[in-house]
Amino acid sequence: MRFVDAITRFLDERLDIRPLIEFAGEKEVPRHRFEGAYFFGGLTLFFFLIQVASGVLLLLYYRPTAEAAFESVQFIVTRVPFGWLVRSVHSWSANLMVLSAFAHMFSVVFMKSYAKPREMTWWTGCLLLAMAMGFGFSGYLLPWNELAFFATRVGTDMVSKVPLVGDWLLRFLRGGEDVTGATLTRFFGFHVAVMPLVITGLIGAHLAFVQRQGIHVPRGLEDDAERRGGMRFLPNFVLRELVVWLVGLAILCGLAAFFPWELGVKADPFASAPAGITPEWYFLFMFETLKLIPGMVLGIEGELLGLGAFALAGVLWFLIPVLDRRARRGEPSPLFTAVGWFVLAYIVVMTGLSFMGVFL
Amino acid sequence: MRRWYVILTLGLCATIVGAQEGGGPATGGSCVSCHLELDEPELREPAELFAGDVHNRGGLGCVLCHGGDAKAEEVDEAMDPDRGFRGAPAAGEIPVLCGSCHGDAAFIKRFDPNLPTDQWDQYRTSIHGMRLAEGDTKVATCISCHGVHGIMAASDPRSSVYPTQVVATCAGCHADSELMGGYGISADQVSRYRRSVHFLALTEGNDLSAPTCNDCHGSHGATPPGVDSISNVCGACHVMNMELFLASPHAEAFSAMELAACEACHGNHEVLLPNDDWLGVDEESVCGRCHERDDTGGEVALALRALMDRGAGVLLNARSKVDDAERAGMLMEDSAVALEEAHQELVTARTQVHLVSVAAVEEHTSAALEAAESALADAAEAREEIRFRRSGLLVALVFILLAIVALVLKIKQLER
After folding, report:
1. Which residue from A131, A217, A230, B305 could staple onto B279, CB 3.0 to 4.6 Å apart?
2. What does the longest C-alpha to C-alpha distance in chain B come to?
């Protein structure tokens, strides 16, 4: 402890960090029967940190070209000491991060924590989820295996449906007309440089908003929270968060050791697409919905209509803090609770049915 | 008879030349336009079918085979014998009629320079052609296989002589027990062929090079291969097997016993996928049909069987172990290469069986064993790695659990 005190004193003399320590020491996290939901945000951050660490290790051996990408990942998982573990942890952690982010988002929706004055926290959170999915989409291609190659071809093809700028967007994403080595290099650039830069800024803003505004107590739980009293952020909440992180780490280790992430076979751009091409699980509900829409609906291309509907739904979801006026006034808003349950049920059911092979 | 052929051929050539000189290719003309309006299906259908006929697409019309005048407006004029009309040719006339054009290299070259022009010559050497020459009009002629008015190029998948259709075409007659009974031929060849590895490769494997009826019997010169020629027929594709067989002690013995080379062991129409059980001297074995356990051939057969069984057994075991490791998430690329090598060596060993030499077979089964054992060693290493990973995970989980317990205790202490 003497060493920690010495370091703190050293930093305080130079950076005046005492007010920050006092702020953290005084900060409290409300306690109520749904307080467990508060840990998902931190858990998402934990998986993101794992992503950064394991991603940096993978970068030491990964080569982002169509000729060498697959072989370099193969080398990592077969020849590099603990390379299999690092790659498997990176892949599993990415999926757990998205899962945890979804859980965090729906807990915010059901607790109406997005309402004024926390709109900006919601908006940065939505952007963070989109970034996490973007990380998944760009990272999916990097091993340059058959499944990823064709899923990326299908996925990027969808942007060509965007009116006016679709073709330009398609070429921007692919670096050409088709998915090639240029696409791989481009996705690699997005995945390890552009997106980390953006997400770091967003995470900073998101955390700053949470710290500035404090933790929201849901309507109807104020009495419960008052009765239980607050929990000190340091060290009580942080220690609890650490327990959650360790549980997350245990799950991650178990998955990585017992279910190593498959590598598949190297992509062959000239081969015909194999059966059963699917995107990552968190895109499945959209993917399957688009497949169910007829080719033409009222004279409009079905896929365009579906993408338009998802884009509109995304915008409305993003604007929930503005649309939900009752929550803003601190009143119950059952309509938005029902919408939240509907969206959650839709995602879960469509994803589950897809895994069960109902749409094959 | 010969004079009649000459007259017919000259008449046909005159018709063709006339059609060409008449400006532009001959087409259906008034024949097709009238026949399409007829109520009788048997008279209307030929005109309908002719629209897709390869001859029609080449500009060759009805008068080429039927004579008459396709430019005449009136039926009496169009079908006037004085204008060369001869109606439907009789069965016996058909090969001559078709051969009059298809045997003319200069004429055929104008339509398809690669089309053979020896069909008529070949047909005359075939059983069909020889019987026809003897006056048997029930035998197959050109139209029996190629059709009449809707003839397609042999390369057209819809054609009755396209590789995948040939067996059904031949079955039209050769599966007809009543018709075949008249010639003392059994009618089960087609059904037996349909159970063969060749038919399987052709239809399910989509391998158009897999043999169908005409690949062994010939098409225009169709005839059953004799005992002496069977190894040449099979050897046209199975070159290595034929060479090994001819170098083996069996070649002379089979010849002396008048056994057909390949057929004696593999059968003819119903050629099944061979397996290692064919070796040895027990009931299921092929060798056991001639050899006893204690004769030299029987001893060789048993030795070959033992070599193949050992190779196949070790490969099976190695494959199972590698599969287990793959299912546990290990990448087994090197093992897959070794397994493929072992498999290829066993395939080569099976080919070497035709030489009936224990040493030749053992050379390849030993190589197969070496490759399979290398895969087995990889699989054992992978199993060890899996054990290491899982025990490592267990240790990590213990530490994580301890850390969790310590944190929970600390929280409790803080909040006491």
Report:
1. B305
2. 125
- C-beta atoms of B404 and A236 within 8 A: no
A321 φψ region: left (φ > 0), alpha (ψ -120 to 50), beta (else): alpha
Distance CA B228, CA B246 (A): 12
In-domain check, residue A324: no
What does the block give as tokens for A235?
Answer: 């060290």
Coil, helix or strand at residue A301 = strand
Instruction: Using DSSP, state whether B15 is helix, strand or coil.
Output: helix
Q: Are B407 and A239 inside 8 Å of each other by CB?
A: yes
**Interface probe with A: pick from B332, B404, B405, B416, most Cβ of A within 10 Å:** B404
* Chain A residues touching residue B415 (CB < 8 angstroms): 236
Query: Facing residues of B126 across strands?
Result: none
Task: For residue A302, tell me if it sits in a domain.
Answer: no
Query: What residue type is A161 in one-letter code?
Result: K
Q: What pLDDT digit, counting tens, does each position of A144-193 carry?
A: 999 899 999 999 998 888 888 999 999 999 999 999 999 999 999 999 99
For the domain that residue A168 is a member of, what is the CATH number? Answer: 1.20.810.10
Whether residue A239 lies within 8 A of chain B, CB to CB, comes out as yes
ipTM for this model: 0.83
What gap in Å lies between CA B58 and CA B107, rounded to an integer? 12
Question: How many independent structural domains does chain A possess?
Answer: 1
To test the contact with chain B by mutation, choose from A231, A246, A253, A255 the residue with the greatest count of B C-beta atoms within 10 A, namely A246
A74·B331 Cβ contact <8 A: yes
Look up the pTM and report it.
0.67
Q: At what angle do helices B239-246 and B249-257 cross, to 10 degrees?
A: 80
CA distance A311 to chain B (A): 38
Domain boundaries along the sequence of chain B: 1-151, 153-176+184-218, 225-272, 296-389
